[in-house]
Specification:
Strand content of chain A: 15-25%
Helix content of chain B: under 10%
Oligomer: heterodimer
Number of strands of chain A: 5
Number of helices of chain B: 1
Radius of gyration of chain A: 14 Å
Number of helices of chain A: 6
Order of helices and strands of chain B: HEEEEEEEEEEEEEEEEEEEEEE
Shape of chain A: globular
Strand content of chain B: over 45%
Structural class of chain A: alpha+beta
Strand order of the largest sheet of chain A: 3-2-1-4-5
Largest sheet of chain B: 13 strands, antiparallel
Helix content of chain A: 40-55%
Structural class of chain B: mainly beta
């Protein structure tokens, strides 16, 4: 069973916005809106970066689609795997044009590098790691 | 031969120089940490008690790293609060404590999630060395060190407890106001050749590590300290080694820094010479742990501290006496993440 990612990510972006505004604003330094469809088990949602905010929406046709294998986020948080290893093992699969994937990489790096400076992040991670698994069906990727 | 100082004199000097600084009024970039190393027979231990200003308050942190059989385990944990008194040598938080009593450091620390616990004493056998302040970008870093201590206690990793007695130990104390990611980087190493001889190497460079700002090579042997500085210290690196960091702390920062194999030098050589003495320290990295931290004013940069356990050789002459010995050490390098 996969843990629900949407509330965790939503809270993480809110934390970034309130605790590291510099980094949050740099998410929008890149041209054109970016929408990312996240598929995490049966959980499907879209993260959309507008010019000044991050929105969590119902699934829609995205610039990039990201499919996550069960537990890969936990493995990454605990440093039991690396992004590169997860991509090579198809634990994370990303689909989109080269430009869109490149932009996703920039947004991801800005988000992570900004989030790790937020004082509330350790608590947020602990909450996520100790969260009961969601009602997602078994991941069939 | 210079007569040995009494334990009481050494303890008095530690107490008068090594206390926590008066940090209550200091600026937002203020940092202070107490660092301890122990080289026991089958393990190496690093314990670091630190204070970093966050949101206007000092956050206490414990870093606990243990290397056994070429692999590092450990973590960094923050505490909500700690009891620390300026000018005293006491640090007490939920998961750790540091006390200096009767000339002995008493150190405890536990990280239950990683199944690691340490409980040991460190007795300084030489006086603290006060070093010149270091330019750390636009700030200043000050430090002092005790190059030789006698360690006794135990370290538990998982269900195995390692006990040690008369193990070589080291302590340094660092404080100052500076920004990680500023225009500086450092190379620092502590090398022990038994309880009678240790070497501390310190090199400050610019951020890209292109320009050397200062060099120091300190040898503590018997009751002497020999301090080589500036042009009397020469560094040379040989070959390239691909080494995978087997521990990155805090784990989440591995997403923001370069991970996987890291290119480092296969062998390092540091020569220290003056009119009377000529010493050559060579060391070979064995295993790597990486400590990551946020840095920079933009809020999205990271810096890293690499901790490399090493085997080491020291050869040459010191005060007219030939030296040739093997030991081990920790080599530390800061860089951008």
């Amino acid at each position: 069973m996969a843990k629900n990612l949407r509330p965790f990510l939503s809270e993480a972006f809110n934390t970034l916005k309130s605790e590291n505004q510099n980094a949050f604003l740099q998410l929008f330094n890149h041209p054109a809106p970016c929408s990312i469809l996240i598929q995490n088990g049966s959980e499907n949602f879209t993260i959309k970066l507008t010019q000044q905010d991050v929105l969590f929406l119902q699934p829609e046709l995205p610039d990039v689609r990201v499919r996550l294998r069960e537990n890969v986020i936990i493995e990454l948080i605990n440093n039991n795997t690396t992004l590169l290893k997860a991509l090579r093992k198809n634990q994370i699969m990303a689909f989109g044009s080269l430009d869109a994937l490149s932009r996703l990489n920039e947004v991801f790096n800005t988000f992570i590098r900004g989030a790790i400076r937020c004082p509330s992040l350790p608590e947020l991670l602990t909450d996520y790691l100790t969260q009961e698994t969601g009602d997602s069906r078994r991941d069939t990727i | 031969m210079i007569p040995a100082l009494s334990n009481q004199t050494i303890a008095q000097r530690v107490r008068s120089t090594d206390g926590f600084r008066n940090f209550s009024h200091l600026d937002t970039q203020y940092k202070e940490w107490m660092h301890f190393c122990v080289f026991a027979h089958d393990i190496n231990v690093l314990v670091n008690f630190s204070l970093v200003k966050e949101r206007g308050e000092l956050t206490p942190r414990l870093t606990l790293l243990v290397e056994q059989s070429g692999r590092w385990v450990g973590d960094i944990v923050s505490a909500e609060s700690a009891v620390i008194r300026p000018a005293n040598l006491n640090f007490s938080a939920r998961n750790c404590s540091l006390n200096f009593e009767n000339g002995i450091f008493h150190i405890t620390g536990v990280i239950p999630e990683k199944e690691i616990a340490v409980n040991f004493t460190l007795t300084p056998i030489v006086s603290p060395i006060q070093t010149p302040s270091v330019n750390a970008g636009s700030g200043k870093l000050r430090w002092l060190c005790i190059p030789r201590c006698d360690a006794e206690g135990n370290v538990t990793v998982g269900n195995i407890t390692h006990q040690f007695k008369n193990a070589p130990g080291y302590h340094d104390h660092n404080w100052g106001s500076f920004e990680w990611g500023g225009n500086f980087s450092w190379r620092w190493g502590y090398f022990s050749f038994g309880s009678d001889l240790s070497v501390i190497v310190s090199r400050i460079l610019d951020k890209q590590a292109h320009q050397v700002i200062s060099d120091s090579f300190m040898v503590s042997s018997d009751n002497h300290l020999k301090d080589f500085r500036g042009h009397s210290v020469k560094h040379k690196q040989k070959g390239v080694l691909q080494l995978e960091s087997n521990l990155t702390v805090p784990p989440i920062i591995s997403l923001a820094i370069r991970s996987g194999n890291v290119s480092i030098n296969r062998e390092y050589e540091v020569k220290a010479t003056n009119q009377e003495d000529a010493l050559t320290l060579t060391f070979v990295p064995q295993s790597l742990a990486t400590i990551g931290m946020p840095s920079g004013e933009q809020g999205i940069e990271t810096s890293t501290i690499s901790e490399l356990s090493c085997t080491a050789n020291l050869t040459g002459t010191l005060r007219g006496k030939a030296i040739s010995c093997t030991g081990k050490g920790i080599w530390e390098a800061t860089s951008r993440g």
